[in-house]
UniProtKB/TrEMBL annotation:
The chain crosses the membrane at residues 6-27, 34-51. It comes from Meiothermus luteus. It comes from the Bacteria. Gene3D superfamilies: NAD(P)-binding Rossmann-like Domain. This is Long-chain acyl-[acyl-carrier-protein] reductase.
Length: 447
């Protein structure tokens, strides 16, 4: 680039002294230790010189063309500089090494507001709030964006002294867009996995609604075999499994009997929710399974009964329903649906009920938290070891991440790629593996 700039100046008939201006700009940029800025300073200096000095029109045109190409090539670096996540000269290269684990996690905005968390899009917020650009346009425009690196989690340090860096890659699709346009969503997840590979990551995790696209990650893995893909299902199941005994014990310690209690599981045909139903079924008196397909709910109920009878465990009275209002009878509610909107509202909840919400975005509407005596416990929240910092709000509280992101980090740190979660099945030995390795590396479930 430098040689090109100097040669360009010479060909356009400028004395060599003028190249100093270009070099000076380059040196200034280098002082910031951003290589991209230094590279961009050179064609910028050249372009400015062609304006202030008498040069032929073709030379001016060529200089500005060179600047345009350079800006386009460095657009991602410019955005990362704005976000403060572009590596500087002298910093260790952000690649996997003995001391450093590098992985990526795909995220998406939960609301239109989330679009503007990233500094590269923050300037556009006022266009929406002032009504200059309609929200519907933003959604339509977002479907054109390829995945990009929008953030980074740093400072996670395992008990054995390694640092885990996790790049956050986003394609700005909202939950309802991911569910209603599965082909586009799968394409974006595949592009995200390719980007993660280009960034040097060994593992990419599919977060929130990305975890259900492409047959729960299977098609993404097939399309990009050069990187390990996980939907995070095993450790999510592990955190649920670990949290439930505590919740049930707390419930009993408040003077209520589990054997006489009614529990409800919402989204009961799903992987996470059915796992919960299996775990709590032998412990409660009555179990209400809520879903969107009655035939499959009946099958799930039959499987539960058979399993309990085979093991000689108590069989509760199991009710299946499509009506969410049925959970009003429940003392304990467990929810893990794939619905992009809240499904549980105050009128569905009995006063004093406890709700364990594993949904991302949450299944429980904010207004439920104001009900007297009702306790809403967010599920699948994990605190990684070290002092994690990041530039985005992931909606899991400061210093905390979802279990599926933790699984991505653990998989990359352990290199046990055969344990990755793909498709709808979760092996119990993999659940056990993540629970044990998480504990050993210093990850803690938030309860
Ligand atoms: N915290 C974490 O780390 C983490 C990790 C993974 C997943 N999750 C979250 O856990 C939830 C479930 O994940 P999953 O992998 O189990 O998904 P899943 O297998 O697709 O199951 C979701 C279930 O929810 C049902 N459902 C959707 N809308 C519903 C509604 N309005 N009422 C009742 N049921 C409804 C679906 O019904 P159909 O069968 O008819 O489609 C499906 O059976 C998601 O919100 C996901 O983001 C959290």
């Amino acid at each position: 680039m430098l040689l090109g700039a100097v040669l360009g100046l010479h060909i356009s008939g400028l004395p060599y002294l003028h190249t100093l201006a270009v070099l000076l700009l380059g040196a200034l940029a280098l002082l910031t230790r951003y290589v991209s800025l230094a590279v961009l300073a050179l064609p910028l200096g050249l372009a400015i010189l062609t304006v202030v000095l008498p040069v032929e029109a073709w030379a001016r045109f060529a200089a500005w063309g060179l600047l345009a190409v350079a800006l386009w090539r460095h657009k991602e670096n410019i955005a990362r500089m704005l976000e403060g996540i572009e590596p500087r000269l002298g910093e260790p290269p952000p690649l996997p090494s003995r001391k450093q684990v590098v992985c990526a996690f795909m995220i998406h905005p939960l609301t239109v507001e989330d679009f503007f968390q990233s500094p590269r899009f923050r300037w556009a917020r006022s266009l929406i709030t002032r009504g200059i650009v309609p929200r519907a346009w933003v959604e339509r425009l977002s479907e054109l964006f390829r995945p990009m690196k929008v953030g980074e989690l740093r400072g996670v340090r395992t008990v054995d002294g390694r640092e885990i860096r996790c790049y956050l890659i986003s394609a700005p699709l909202l939950p309802h867009q991911i569910t209603s346009k599965p082909e586009l969503a799968t394409l974006r997840a595949i592009q995200g996995a390719r980007l993660a590979r280009e960034l040097g990551c060994t593992v990419v995790g599919l977060g929130a609604f990305w975890s259900v696209v492409g047959e729960k990650g299977r098609l993404v893995q097939e399309a990009v075999p050069e990187i390990e893909v996980t939907n995070g299902g095993a450790y999510t199941a592990g955190t649920v499994k670990a949290a439930i005994p505590g919740i049930l014990a707390h419930f009993e310690s408040s003077g209520r009997s589990l054997r006489e209690a009614t529990a409800a599981v919402v989204g009961a045909n799903g992987v996470v929710a059915f796992g919960i139903a299996r775990q709590i079924a032998p412990l409660v008196g009555r179990l209400i399974l809520v879903g969107r397909n009655l035939e499959r709910l009946e099958k799930s109920a039959a499987t539960l009964r058979q399993n309990l009878e085979r093991k000689g465990q108590p069989v509760p009275d199991i009710v299946t329903t499509l009506e969410i209002a049925a959970i009003r009878e429940a003392d304990l509610i467990f929810s893990a649906t794939s619905d992009p909107r809240p499904v549980i509202f105050p009128e569905h909840v009995k006063p004093g009920a406890w709700i364990y919400d594993e949904g991302v975005p949450p299944d429980v509407d904010e207004s439920v938290k104001k009900l007297p005596g009702v306790r809403v416990i967010p599920g699948g929240v994990v605190r990684p070891p070290g002092n994690m910092t990041g530039n985005l709000d992931l909606h899991f509280g400061e210093g905390a991440v979802p279990a599926c992101l933790a699984e991505t980090m653990i998989l990359a740190a352990e290199g046990a790629y055969e344990r990755k979660s793909l498709g709808g099945e979760t092996k119990s030995e993999n659940i056990q593996f993540f629970v044990e390795r998480a504990e050993a590396l210093g990850f803690r479930v938030v309860d």
